[in-house]
Design a protein that fits this description.
There is one protein chain. It contains 16 helices and 8 strands. The protein has 396 residues and is of the alpha/beta class. Strand 7 and strand 8 form a beta hairpin. It starts with 22 loop residues before the first helix and ends with a helix.
Length: 396
């Protein structure tokens, strides 16, 4: 079939496969927007799940929903060991610009931008030379005495309060979306929780939507004991069969093509219902089919092509980030669980490698920091990437 029309190619189609089956999350966020806009208290939201389940795409959809409601919205992608001030400043700058087009008092907008600039400039080291100092690109003077103490927890509370009040002026709110939230530094996680707590007490119209790996709720809980009350936790998982089928059938029908029920069976079997894999195998099946309808033979012929692309772009790129010692640990995990998507006992991994568990802690901790594994529960470890164990067992 025509590869140019492939509805599973990146960027193709009106509704990406990753969003199929996420109506419950979208509806819940719509309620959050409505409640906050009416001045009613509402918790911020945390989405957690494995890689490949569509968290990032869902964040993008929630951001679009906020913008359609007239909210200011900004998105941050956290990075390991990187501070929060610079990316957060850029995200809130975007949100303030969204609000500015509706605000009738330009001086008030500039006042909030001045506070944002003061917050942002504290990202510079105190001893940095003038030529080395980062400038946030905000064309107003930095405010004095507001969000500029240097204590990120104090400053974030003050900044969020200012931005939320600006949104309240125009009867809307602000949504701050943070992807890879588990990669925030501990002090930034603590500050974020404190700011969300302050906002929840005052009913200010600003909500945080965080997304991250399955252990993100534990990261937040370790930072602040009251974090469980701050956020509504939503686990994002693979698609159930009906939603996986919809993710395949809907884009195909938009191209006025067809797929057999046997082919849908085959696609669900090889993809496991994980949205990223649904898209990868669906794309390959479309390219392999000479004509409509797409059949199960087309899926079987296409599977090696999809698996080859996944081996390089999805699995391989992550495996390459691991050191030799970390790769040894990953392979041992795969052997212990026999390639299945389930957690391995840390003692079983040590026994397989004939090593003391304590001697493997550095490799395990490094893999957690790199986002390749997570602690499913005490004494157990699991891959953050679906089918990663199966992939590792095929490597020499």
């Amino acid at each position: 079939m025509d590869p140019v029309r492939n509805p599973f190619a990146p960027g193709a189609g009106q509704r990406p496969p990753e969003l199929a089956g996420r109506d419950r999350e979208a509806d819940a966020f719509e309620v959050v927007l409505e409640r906050v806009a009416r001045g009613r208290p509402e918790r911020s939201l945390v989405l957690s799940g494995l890689r490949g389940v569509g968290k990032t795409v869902l964040l993008g959809e929630l951001r679009s929903m906020a913008i359609r409601r007239g909210w200011g919205a900004g998105k941050v992608e956290a990075r390991p060991e990187a501070g929060l001030r610079r990316p957060l400043s850029a995200a809130l700058h975007r949100a303030i610009r969204d609000l500015a087009v509706r605000h009738r008092a330009p001086d008030r907008v500039d006042e909030v931008l001045g506070v944002l600039k003061a917050f942002a400039l504290k990202a510079n080291p105190a001893d940095a030379k003038l030529r080395d100092r980062w400038q946030p690109g905000i064309d107003v003077p930095a405010a004095q005495g507001r969000a500029d103490s240097g204590d990120v927890e104090i400053d974030l509370v003050e900044l969020f309060t200012e931005v939320a009040e600006l949104a309240a002026d125009v009867g809307t709110g602000v949504a701050l979306l943070i992807d890879e939230m588990q990669d925030l530094r501990p002090e930034d996680v603590s500050a974020l929780c404190a700011a969300c707590h302050e906002l929840s007490q005052s009913g200010a119209p600003l909500v945080v939507v965080g997304a991250g790996l399955p252990h993100l709720p534990a990261v937040l809980s370790a930072s602040k004991s009251y974090s469980e009350r701050l956020f509504r936790y939503v686990r994002i998982d693979r698609l159930v069969r009906s939603d996986a089928d919809r993710a395949v059938v809907a884009p195909i029908e938009r191209e006025e093509a067809e797929i057999t029920s046997e082919a849908l069976d085959a696609l669900f079997s090889v993809s496991g219902g994980y949205p990223y894999f649904v898209q990868a195998y669906g794309k390959a099946a479309w390219d392999a089919a000479p004509r409509a309808p797409i059949g199960s033979d087309d899926v079987r012929l296409a599977a090696p092509e999809a698996e080859g692309e996944l081996a390089v772009g999805f699995f391989g790129s992550r495996y390459e980030r691991a050191t030799p010692a970390e790769r040894e640990y990953l392979r041992a995990m795969a052997e212990v669980v026999e390639g299945r998507d389930e957690a391995a006992g840390t003692s079983s991994v040590a026994e397989f490698l004939e090593r003391r568990p304590s001697s493997l802690s550095p490799a395990r901790d490094s893999l957690i920091k790199k986002g390749l594994v997570y602690s499913a529960e005490r004494g157990r470890i699991a891959f953050t990437v679906p089918h990663f164990g199966r992939y590792l067992l095929t490597q020499d």
